[in-house]
């Protein structure tokens, strides 16, 4: 039932870290604008924190901060619960309690959405509530709602993006200055772009959670972070960056999701992407997501992928959408869109072009032997560069035509056991040339 009430819509926040502080600043600083746009005042009633005496960098009225989650979850006056705690527990428990109590929920928690989305969205549907999560992917860049709403008439075939600012910053610096990975990582940590333990970023796990979420929405099928093939950037060195530039490519860590013939491939790994591709120009800690649909064609969403205010902007946008739904009596109108079950294609069956860098013995016939092994596995060579020699060892760079990955893996297994091969220095996929 539509309500004409002008009573404030009351918000309870779970957590007030960096993003929570930003949400508080926007909701209080832009209160008049938000009231006008949402149709009713949106008021913060309670904020659950571990330590109510800690300085937050903002002035919070007495009685708003509490250490008791029940003050939000069991408070009948609170309409919207905003979860900004992060992690799996107790965040999942709190969100489920809120949904079962008939409260609307907004979250920025990519771990929960990527790992436990089905359980959460089943609860959302059962209780006719809203569960909004725009801020879980790409910070301040609108992408969840565009996929669910603005592009809903499209059959989306490709989602490919730079969705981790830390790795993009590192690779940008390595490209610009020829820097070593470890040196740039230390710089990123000093600037606050990388955590003291950067594993989730540099090994690709953060991006895997985000691409799982995007793939689920784009292809209407449940994809979890466990379904994503993942490689990080720790094996990329200045030599690979240099050869990429020489060959007309830029090295990026991408989240890639494609649907082909009813199968979904979803992966995170470094790629060589043509310098002319829109994603190649995305630098520093920025994010960008490239989407291809049958009606819209190709489009790209670009902007800051993390940080206090950009991420808070996405959270507040969700809060305002939920507030409009409350006023209109239409909560739960767009629930989970995973209404199909599509198989995930194994990485061995995925087709790509490849860059190979090999260290081999510098003697006649070596290249012919390599070509023979590749040919025996239906792998064909596009480009060959013999770059340098160090004593009796030569460095050979190959670009391989598009091939199923398992064929290349089988060929590399044979090559690694040959007496002419010192080591396979790196293997990097080539993407975006058909974009």
From TrEMBL:
Catalytic activity reads: L-homoserine + NADP(+) = L-aspartate 4-semialdehyde + NADPH + H(+)
Needed cofactors, names only, are:
a metal cation
Database matches in NCBIfam families: PRK06349.1
Q: Which PANTHER family match?
A: HOMOSERINE DEHYDROGENASE
Protein name, UniProt field? Homoserine dehydrogenase
Q: EC?
A: 1.1.1.3
The record's family statement is: Belongs to the homoserine dehydrogenase family.
| Gene Ontology MF annotations | homoserine dehydrogenase activity; metal ion binding; NADP binding
Q: Which GO terms describe its biological process?
A: methionine biosynthetic process; threonine biosynthetic process
Say which enzyme class the record assigns: oxidoreductase
Pathway(s): Amino-acid biosynthesis; L-threonine biosynthesis; L-threonine from L-aspartate: step 3/5; Amino-acid biosynthesis; L-methionine biosynthesis via de novo pathway; L-homoserine from L-aspartate: step 3/3
Instruction: Locate the residues binding L-homoserine.
Output: 195
InterPro entries, sorted = ACT-like_dom_sf, ACT_dom, Asp/hSer_DH_NAD-bd, HDH, HDH_cat, HDH_CS, NAD(P)-bd_dom_sf
Residues forming the catalytic site: 210 (proton donor)
Domain ACT, chain residue ranges per copy: 355-435
The record's listing under SUPFAM superfamilies reads:
ACT-like, Glyceraldehyde-3-phosphate dehydrogenase-like, C-terminal domain, NAD(P)-binding Rossmann-fold domains
């Amino acid at each position: 039932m539509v309500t004409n009430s002008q009573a404030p819509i009351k918000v309870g926040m779970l957590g007030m870290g960096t993003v929570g502080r930003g949400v508080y600043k926007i909701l209080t600083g832009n209160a008049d604008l938000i009231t006008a746009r949402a149709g009713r005042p949106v008021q913060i009633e309670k904020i659950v924190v571990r330590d109510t005496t800690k300085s937050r960098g903002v002035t919070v009225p007495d009685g708003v901060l509490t250490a008791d989650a029940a003050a939000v979850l069991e408070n009948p006056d609170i309409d919207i619960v905003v979860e900004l705690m992060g992690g799996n527990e107790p965040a999942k428990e709190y969100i489920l309690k809120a949904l079962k109590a008939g409260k609307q929920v907004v979250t920025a928690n990519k771990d929960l959405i990527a790992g436990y989305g089905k359980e959460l969205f089943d609860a959302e549907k059962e209780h006719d509530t809203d569960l909004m999560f725009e801020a879980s992917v790409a910070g301040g860049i609108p992408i969840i709602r565009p996929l669910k709403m603005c592009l809903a008439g499209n059959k989306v075939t490709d989602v490919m993006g730079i969705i981790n600012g830390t790795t993009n910053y590192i690779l940008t610096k390595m490209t610009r200055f020829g820097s070593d990975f470890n040196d740039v990582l230390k710089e990123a940590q000093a600037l606050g772009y990388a955590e003291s333990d950067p594993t989730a970023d540099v090994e690709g796990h953060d991006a895997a959670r985000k691409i799982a979420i995007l793939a689920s929405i784009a292809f209407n099928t449940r994809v979890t972070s466990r379904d994503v093939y993942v490689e990080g950037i720790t094996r990329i060195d200045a030599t690979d960056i240099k050869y990429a530039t020489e060959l007309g490519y830029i090295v990026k860590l991408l989240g890639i999701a494609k649907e082909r013939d009813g199968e979904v491939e979803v992966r995170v790994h470094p790629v060589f992407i043509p310098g002319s591709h829109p994603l190649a120009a995305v630098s520093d800690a920025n994010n960008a997501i490239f989407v291809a649909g049958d009606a819209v064609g190709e489009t790209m969403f670009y902007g800051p992928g993390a940080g206090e205010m950009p991420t808070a902007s996405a959270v507040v946008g969700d809060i305002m959408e939920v507030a409009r739904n409350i006023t209109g009596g239409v909560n739960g109108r767009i629930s989970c869109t995973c209404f199909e079950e599509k198989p995930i294609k194994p990485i061995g069956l995925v087709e790509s072009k490849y860059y190979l860098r090999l260290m081999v013995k510098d003697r006649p016939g070596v290249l012919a032997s390599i070509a023979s092994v590749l040919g025996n596995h239906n792998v064909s060579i596009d480009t060959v560069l013999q770059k340098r020699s160090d004593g009796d060892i030569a460095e050979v760079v190959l670009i391989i035509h598009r091939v199923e990955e398992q064929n290349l893996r089988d060929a590399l297994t044979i090559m690694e056991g040959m007496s002419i091969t010192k080591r396979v220095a790196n293997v990097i996929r080539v993407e975006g040339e058909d974009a």
